[in-house]
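About this split. The held-out portion is used to measure sequence recovery: a designer receives only the structure tokens and must propose an amino acid at every position. Recovery is the fraction of positions where the proposal matches the reference. Here is one held-out target exactly as it appears in the evaluation file.
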């Protein structure tokens, strides 16, 4: 076997896709990370230096200086000049790039290697002056190490900055405040004060939201009045909810709401417990009271079902584009109803609400549900509310009186105080027992046995306290809901047409479909559940409020089916499903016990 060696030809090393040039077209890349005076001087001097440096070399052709200022070196997408440089290289306009150092080119190791390799494949050199590295002649080993060092410097600097910011937060200093509607920021004193004009808008938003209006409706009202956000933009649902969720408006301050995942990607996420947060109470003058703010949060939590997002950095959104959005529930499968338009391009157009389980997955998944027109639901509510205000007025007054008497008889506060005292007594006994054991007065076996018994007793008291505190919260919630309904009824009058504001103020949810008193399926049964727990059932609403009954449906008597056990207390159809009645019965049984 004979092997012939064919000697390499240096001329063949030229890139086949490019023509040979007698002179190299050379460009320079410069970058500074801030826009302070010293950095800008450095930026200007670098531009002049490389312009003169390239033009003074007779073997080079000046191809320009690409310079980014006041941008980070860790993210390429923010560096417009760098992207332009790479594009010109790919279009074969440049043969060599000069950079002062690797950190000036990029502080991200992956980006450095990515673009150096991309250019090297096209026979384009990158020359780093400080490190004296030419990427066409030198290997990647040294460049990789130096690039990693540059990246590590960024990470160390980021860690120092984060530590400094946390120390400021711990001291209660205002950090990262970007300004918000209703407050002015004083840079010198680093304090915020109320802006009267903006504060009025904030109070309006909280007022309308606690009255029951959705974020979309509030945004529409503000836009119609010509009011704009603090940045001069039209209002949207997200900007309204940004006001509702901002604890600053009750005088508190939460620092550390977001955090940077890493200094390279600079991706920020909502802080759901990954990093420390700092909550400062009574930091500044509030615009709304704590009671109104808490009420708004209660409404927000109830509207999204008290759900918490499972994906970090995301938040549940609630949009009330229509009065019945997220308010209608299927009585057969429990799914929500969605709004649909039938015959939208003809004169027979009508708006209906249908079970999403049936429309999205097929009729077999909810075969008993039917589409119901929006007009029928509106007319049914008008009748339900009229009955509540007029025909059931005496029943309602009796219901209010009984609830107030029951709540007045419940001495949960006294029980909680008594249990707290018992818990303190047990803690004192455990403390004395430990001291006696350490002093040699009590033997170890007696100490362990006695301490175990005391710990069990303390645990039992804690469990009782948890139950009582939950009941206390329920009691306060019932009181608030009763007061709200009484206030709404005192201000409202019977109306002939559907009023969205009244509907949202008094209704918790509406169940479409179910079973009538004979036990038969009724897809057009409508159950209105008021925020106090009161329920009104309307059977066969389509027949009563449909086309054939349009002229006299409104005057008909509404069917209400009441449970005998609570008929004298409220107009609920079932004690098992009425939250207020269930609370009353539980409280009465507890008092009797």
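Reference sequence for scoring:
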């Amino acid at each position: 076997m004979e092997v012939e060696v064919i000697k390499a030809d240096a001329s063949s090393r030229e890139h086949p896709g490019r023509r040979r040039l007698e002179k190299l077209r050379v460009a320079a890349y410069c970058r500074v990370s801030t826009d302070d005076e010293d950095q800008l001087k450095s930026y200007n001097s670098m531009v002049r230096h490389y312009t003169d440096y390239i033009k003074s070399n007779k073997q080079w052709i000046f191809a320009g200086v690409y310079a980014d200022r006041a941008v980070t070196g860790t993210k390429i997408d923010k560096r417009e000049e760098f992207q332009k440089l790479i594009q010109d290289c790919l279009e074969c306009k440049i043969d060599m790039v000069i950079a002062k150092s690797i950190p000036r080119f990029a502080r991200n190791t992956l980006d450095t290697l990515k673009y150096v390799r991309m250019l090297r494949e096209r026979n384009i050199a990158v020359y780093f002056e400080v490190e004296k590295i030419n990427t066409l002649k030198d290997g990647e080993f040294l460049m990789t190490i130096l690039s990693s060092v540059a990246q590590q410097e960024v990470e160390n600097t980021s860690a120092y900055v984060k530590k400094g910011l946390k120390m400021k937060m711990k001291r209660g200093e205002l950090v990262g405040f970007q300004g918000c509607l209703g407050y002015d920021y004083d840079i010198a004193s680093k304090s915020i004060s109320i802006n009267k004009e903006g504060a009025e808008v904030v109070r309006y938003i909280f007022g309308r939201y606690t009255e029951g209006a959705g974020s979309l409706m509030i945004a529409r009202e503000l836009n119609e009045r010509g009011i704009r956000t603090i940045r001069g933009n039209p209002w949207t649902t997200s900007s309204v909810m940004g006001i509702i969720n901002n604890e600053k408006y009750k005088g508190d301050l939460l620092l550390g709401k977001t955090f940077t995942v890493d200094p390279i990607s600079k991706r920020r996420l909502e802080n759901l417990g990954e990093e420390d947060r700092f909550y400062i109470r009574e930091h500044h003058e509030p615009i709304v009271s704590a009671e109104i703010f808490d009420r708004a949060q209660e409404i927000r939590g109830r509207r999204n079902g008290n759900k918490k997002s499972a994906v970090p950095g995301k938040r549940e959104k609630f949009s009330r584009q229509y009065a019945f959005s997220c308010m209608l529930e299927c009585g057969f499968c429990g799914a929500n109803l969605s709004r649909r338009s039938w015959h939208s391009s003809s004169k027979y157009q009508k708006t209906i609400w249908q079970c999403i389980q049936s429309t999205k997955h097929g009729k077999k998944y909810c075969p008993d549900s039917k589409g119901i027109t929006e007009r029928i639901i509106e007319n049914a509510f008008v009748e339900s509310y009229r009955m509540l205000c007029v025909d059931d007025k005496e029943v309602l007054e009796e219901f209010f009186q009984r609830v107030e008497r029951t709540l007045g008889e419940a001495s949960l506060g006294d029980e909680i105080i008594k249990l707290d005292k018992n818990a303190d007594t047990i803690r004192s006994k455990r403390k004395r027992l430990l001291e006696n054991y350490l002093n040699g007065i009590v033997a170890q076996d007696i100490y362990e046995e006695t301490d175990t018994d005391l710990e069990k007793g303390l645990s039992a008291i804690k469990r009782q306290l948890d139950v009582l505190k939950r009941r206390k919260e329920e009691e306060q919630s019932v009181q608030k809901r009763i007061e709200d309904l009484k206030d709404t009824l005192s201000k409202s009058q019977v109306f002939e047409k559907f009023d969205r504001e009244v509907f949202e103020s008094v209704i918790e949810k509406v169940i479409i479909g179910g079973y009538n008193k004979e036990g038969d399926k009724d897809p057009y049964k409508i159950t209105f559940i008021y925020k106090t727990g009161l329920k009104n059932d309307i059977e066969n609403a389509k027949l009563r409020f449909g086309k054939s009954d349009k002229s006299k449906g409104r005057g008909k008597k509404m069917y209400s089916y009441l449970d005998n056990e609570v008929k004298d207390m409220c107009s609920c159809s079932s004690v098992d499903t009425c939250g207020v009645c269930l609370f009353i019965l539980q409280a009465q049984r507890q008092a009797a016990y």
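Annotator remark: The chain has 17 helices and 18 strands.
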